[in-house]
Amino acid sequence: MYVTAYLSKDIIPGKVNYSPQHLLKMVQEMKLTHIPMFSGLTFIGNIAEEDLIELSTLEQSEVKFYDYTESFFLSEDHTIFEAFQLMYMNHTNILPVITPDSKYIGCVTAQSLIEAMTNFPFISEIAVSMVVSTATKELSMSAITNIVEANNGKVFGLMIIDEVEDRTNVLVRFSSSNLLSIGETFERYGYQVIQKFYNDEKQELLQNRYAQLLKYMNT
């Protein structure tokens, strides 16, 4: 999951000898929030679209790109998840990948990373999702996995989605033909099933009985 496996081949970096108008056109055509800038082969930082709009109003002799660059980038050993975090922190949808000796490798975009993640089995496989809550001090990913697998389920992944006070909520993605049993087993072992993104047999039975009761009352 290193970012070097997901480099976008369509991004052209900017050069300090380009005009702000030309750079702005590049950013808008590629639908980027920033563009990585270079002086020769040396990376000098990233310039945001709004700064290019401001620079476009100046005379070319007044343009000083160095005053507007922001120095954020990825290295070869960064992962997809670190890339998303850095994008969020810098409000950008593009990150250049730079080696320790400042060599430019390429760029990754939010779009290219999202496309890559959709191929992960956690997302791509046909599965059901369940959010279970447990005391944080008792959290065990292996225990959650064991409950699913003991009921003949196949786990595609688990993800901690939030922590509320002393409890942790975990999203479980799995496939199984025994969904009702899995939900009941979680509850039997002290987990709270917060959300179920499917209809189980118990829920359907209760809905049918409620519908029959309403029909009886209206006759």
TrEMBL record:
Ordered alphabetically, the record's keywords are: CBS domain
Residues of the CBS domain: 66-125
Please name the InterPro entries in this protein's record: CBS_dom, CBS_dom_sf
Residues passing through the membrane, by range: none
Against Gene3D superfamilies, the record matches this protein to: CBS-domain
Q: Has keyword Membrane?
A: no
| UniProt keyword annotation of Glycoprotein present | no
Q: What is this protein called?
A: CBS domain-containing protein
